[in-house]
What we know:
The chain has three helices and five strands. The protein is an alpha+beta fold.
Amino acid sequence: PRRQTRYLGIKMFSLTPEIIDALRSRVFLPYSISKGVFVADVIPRSSAERVGLRPGDIIIQVNDRDLESSADLMKYVQE
């Protein structure tokens, strides 16, 4: 059977220490955030928009599992 690919509806990138430092110099970013996924854009009428994700959001967990990178997010969504 063919496996269905899930579509998130966001453009994202993994947070690196350099990106976190750059974000902290521009906006308030809690020091507790040291990894995760930055939501750069949300596709109109996508599942992400329907659940309330917005550009600038930072996703740090999915189903109580910490995210290290955008690859983790994709892996957890595909499960």
